[in-house]
Amino acid sequence: MRKSVNYVLSYSQAIDIWSMGGVVVALYTNELPSSVQHGTSNSADSTKQINFSSPVWRRVSAKGKAYISETMAIDEHKRINADQALQHAWFHDQKYAADLQRAYKKVIQDWKSQRDGSSQG
């Protein structure tokens, strides 16, 4: 006879931050975070740190790697929060600021407000 196990799942902002780091990993590497973590191949193992020694990471800035490390810290109490993520130096690097602003304006140029149908760009 199988015993019934009750799991208590807790949700916090920390998992959203980890996911945001995972999206950045996917954008940089075209792979899921689990495949670029130490000691994993295809398993979703969030207990491993990102392996930055592989060739795909050579083109990623130190600020980009720091952002990923800080958003995907294994201990959620050491992981940065949403405000810290948005204020991270990687987002405010002047080298990319103009490019990011242009890309953002291009993306939102055809968006419509849900309230009045007006364009957001």
* Protein structure class: mainly alpha
Which residues form runs of ≥5 with pLDDT under 50? 38-45
Largest sheet: none
Number of separate helices: 4
The separation of the N and C termini measures 62 Å
Strand content: under 5%
Q: In angstroms, what is the radius of gyration?
A: 18 Å
Oligomeric state: single chain
Secondary structure tally: strands: 0
Describe this structure in words.
It is a single chain. The protein is mainly α. 39% of the residues lie in helices and 0% in strands. The chain has four helices and no strands. Helix 1 runs antiparallel to helix 2. The chain is globular and about 55 Å long.
Briefly say what this structure is.
It contains four helices and no strands. It is mostly helical and 121 residues long.
Topology of helices and strands:
Elements: H1 13-29, H2 62-71, H3 82-86, H4 94-108
Helix pairs in contact: 1-2
Short key terms for the protein model shown above:
mainly alpha
